[in-house]
Write a structure and sequence with these properties.
- With 41 residues, the protein is an all-alpha fold.
- Helices cover 90% and strands 0% of the residues.
Length: 41
Amino acid sequence: MMNHTKGWMTDMMGGGMWVWTVIGVLVVVLLAALIIKLSKK
């Protein structure tokens, strides 16, 4: 049980970095879309 949890945590830290990159890009795109919508009004 402990080993499985530790393995999952290591996978999240190491292989999960691309997830944060995707989230960051999505946030930037959403912010850009909001700015464009506000500037058009």
